[in-house]
Write a structure and sequence with these properties.
- By secondary structure, this protein is an alpha/beta fold.
- It contains ten helices and five strands; from the N terminus they run ααβααβαβααβαβαα.
- The radius of gyration is 18 Å and the shape is globular.
- InterPro entries: Ester_Hydrolysis_Enzymes, SGNH_hydro, SGNH_hydro_sf.
Length: about 240
């Protein structure tokens, strides 16, 4: 009984510490602050790419690190984040790094309500704001579809699949209408129920190594397409 009480106390302390830290740094600007400071300005001819996202982006470096090896790819994913948090840190974690391209993958945690209730329209608004900030600073934009999901282990019963589909339609429409590259992970990874194929995930939401291996060539093709586009008006290269 004593061990159970101790474990519960430690768990509660960890949860409260995490909540306190987030309250002090809600967008988690300190997560990559030191790493960003160490990054040098891109060398002449370097085609830097920043991946902005949540745990699906962050986990890519853990489950499929070879995707990033030997390439000017920078992972700026933060687990659990929603689009308003990413929008706040977008200048620090994307614009200031002076990439040629940004690959944005976000929205599933908004649907889960991680930082409060959110409509698909609200999510789209934040994604549009990030895209506009990138273009205004001469950065080419890849907007990714949200990956399929039938349920959330941390917040069951929310039935996210219809919202994911609706959001992806909005993202694609905006990308098409504004000359941005739309990166469609969903079509390659969805099962018959519009959830994430079991062979590509370990929890129904996050990709495993096989999932990232499906995503990798799709991302590479989208980046190559974006690289060929005319440089947006903004900072000079």
């Amino acid at each position: 009984m004593r061990n159970i009480k101790l474990t519960f106390t430690l768990l509660l302390f960890t949860m409260l510490s995490t909540e306190f830290a987030l309250a002090q740094d809600w967008p988690q600007l300190n997560k990559y602050k030191e790493a960003n400071a160490k990054l040098e300005t891109p060398a002449p001819g370097e085609k830097r790419v920043v991946f902005m996202g949540n745990s699906i982006t962050e986990g890519w470096s853990n489950h499929n690190p070879e995707f990033f090896e030997g390439k000017p790819y920078i992972n700026r994913g933060i687990g659990g984040q929603t689009t308003p948090q990413m929008l706040v840190r977008f200048r620090q974690d994307v614009i200031d790094l002076k990439p040629e391209v940004v690959v944005i993958l976000a929205g599933i945690n908004d649907i889960a309500g991680n930082t409060g209730p959110s409509t698909v329209e609200m999510i789209e608004d934040n994604l549009i704001s990030m895209a506009q900030l990138a273009k205004a600073n001469g950065i080419k934009v890849v907007l990714s579809s949200v990956l399929p999901a039938l349920d959330f282990s941390w917040r069951p019963g929310m039935e996210p699949a219809p919202k994911v589909i609706a959001l992806n339609k909005m993202i694609k429409r905006y990308a098409d209408e504004n000359g941005l590259v739309y990166l469609d992970y969903f079509s390659a990874m969805a099962d018959a129920q519009q959830g994430l194929k079991s062979e590509y995930t370990y929890d129904g939401v996050h990709p495993n190594k096989a999932g990232y291996e499906v995503m990798a060539p799709l991302a590479e093709a989208a980046i190559a397409k974006a690289m060929k586009q005319k440089q947006p008006k903004g900072r000079s290269k």
